[in-house]
Each structure stands twice: as C-alpha cells, then as structure tokens.
Amino acid sequence: MRQNTTRRFALAAALALAIGGVHAHDGKAHTGGIASAASKAVIADFDIVHTKITTEKNIATFHMAVSGKAGKTTPAATGKLAGSDVFSYVWPTTIDPYEVGFEKGAGILAMAVTAHPDFDDTPLYDENGDGKLDNDGDLWHSHWVVLQPNEACGPGALGVVDIPEGSKPRLPKTWPGFPILLDSPGWSPTLNAETVEVKVPFDDIGVVTAGSFDGVTAGLRVNASVHAPLLCVVDVFKVASGNLSLPGKPNK
C-alpha cells in the first residue's frame, strides 16, 4: 500500500479542489470547507474528499470525509516500539501551539486522530474498557501534535517536534511523557461510515475561527533507534488542498 500511496509534502501533486459551496460524495452532501477530488491512486480509507472545521459556542468540530470507510485500515503490529507505524487523519492549523499548552511559535499545531498497535500514548485513559491503561494504541484516538520540517525525516518531510534532553518546555497537563510535542487530551473521535470527527473544547474559540486549516492523511514511523527524530511523517497518503497551503476557513 505504501508504494502506491506515498506522497511527500514537498512533492504533493495539485489535486482538484473547490472551497465553499455544496460538495457531493456518493449521494451525500458535504457543505463548506475544502472539497478534494476522489483519487483511485489512494486507498479509499485515506482518500480525502472533504475537510472542514465548524464551531458552536466553545466547541470546535474537526471533520474529514473519505471515499471509503474511515478507520478501516490500521498498521500491522510489529511487537515493538522501534520502527513501528502510525496511521493518522490530521488537521494542520494556524492556531498557535500556546493555545493548547505548548510554547508560543513551537511549530504547526495539528489535531490528529491516530492508531498504532505497538504502543499506547494515552496513559490517562482506558479506551477499550478492560481496566488497563497501557494497551489501547490500536484504537483510534486523538492528539494534539506540533510539527516542523525535519530533514532528518527525509527531504521536505515533517516530524513531530522533539524535546531535547534536559530541556523543560511548556507542556500541556495531559502530555503523555514521550519526548516530543504531543498531547493526549482524551477527546474521543467518532468514525462513522466515511467520516472522522473530533469535538474539541476551547477556552477562547476565537483562536479557532480566526485561523485556517488543511486536511492530511498520513503514515508516521517511530525511529528505529527510538531517538531524535522520534516520530517522522514518512508517507503522505493525501493532502486535502493538494499543497498544504491551509486554505480552509472555519465555518465557511
């Protein structure tokens, strides 16, 4: 699958898209946001056709629709953290990372819905309800991640920002302990038919409505040496805008 779907951010080809209006997908209407043409070159689970963010009171809803069944495919388990894969539905935004607990200007703040069977990075939550907090990584769950270009991840690739040994940056209270700018706030995603959604509360919803966003489906990989860079974006399945220009506007 990776050979057929890999796209580097730097090499992502322009996709047909329209912003605003009403967009049809399999007879279902999607309004507003970013519409992307379906592509047979992308596995249907990750073939983005619609991305938007809407707000109501202090809640922002991150929405993505694909041409297949959302969440159907998860990574194959390897039995170890080193070199393991992460599949993700991602909303890169212009929101400053400070607004969710990181340092100001730390990088690109993105909401991500991820699954990875080889490790659990939501230590405060028991997603599968079995009384254990450390065995839920294979279930789809949400994160805030802070991304930056990192040549160590590959030409033009992004990585989750590493925390240098000995440094003590500002971190959210629900930071899971990994040495990267990752938060596990516990907002449960909903995957239903072709859609993925996450509802996220904000103290100041204005930081969302004043910003912009894009949509990405991607594969990430833990470094084989479990060392910086710890988590790299290695496969880009699809970018909603085609070029990661973050053209989407909330509520439009």
Query: Please, what is the average pLDDT?
Result: 87
- Major beta sheet summary: 7 strands, antiparallel
Assign an overall shape: globular
What is the count of distinct domains?
1
Helical fraction equals under 10%
Relative strand content: 25-35%
Number of helices: 2
The residue ranges in which pLDDT falls below 50 over 5 or more consecutive positions are 1-27
SSE succession: HEEEEEEEEEEEEEHEE
Q: How many DSSP-defined strands?
A: 15
Give the class from helix and strand content and strand pairing. mainly beta
- Whole-number radius of gyration? 17 Å
Please describe what this structure looks like:
The radius of gyration is 17 Å and the shape is globular. The protein has 252 residues and is mainly β. Helices cover 3% and strands 35% of the residues. The longest helix has 4 residues, at 2-5. The chain has one domain. Strands 7, 8, 9, 10, 11, 14 and 15 form a 7-stranded antiparallel sheet that branches. It has 2 helices and 15 strands.
How is the secondary structure organized here?
Elements: H1 2-5, E1 17-19, E2 22-25, E3 28-31, E4 34-36, E5 48-56, E6 59-66, E7 85-92, E8 108-115, E9 141-149, E10 158-160, E11 182-183, E12 190-192, E13 195-201, H2 206-209, E14 216-222, E15 231-239
Antiparallel strand pairs: 1-4, 2-3, 4-5, 5-6, 6-13, 7-8, 7-14, 8-9, 9-10, 9-11, 12-13, 14-15
